[in-house]
Amino acid sequence: MSLPLTVKRRSTVISFFIMNYNKIRRRKNLPAFRISGFKKMMAAAAAGALLLLIIIGYVSQCASQKKTAAAYAPTYEIYPEKEILPQRRIPEPKPLLPEVAIIIDDVGYDCQMGEAFLNLDKNITLSVFPHSPCRHEISRKAKIAGVEIMLHLPMEPIEYPAVNPGTGALLTAMTPEELVRQLERNLDSVPHIRGVNNHMGSRMTAMYPGMYQILSLVKKRNLFFVDSLTTEDSICRSCARLLQVPFAQRDVFIDHVQTSEFVRQQLLLLIRTAENYGEAIGIGHPHDVTYNMLQEMLPELKKKVRLVPASEVVHTGG
Question: Looking at the 3D structure of the chain, how many domains does it have?
Answer without folding.
Answer: 2
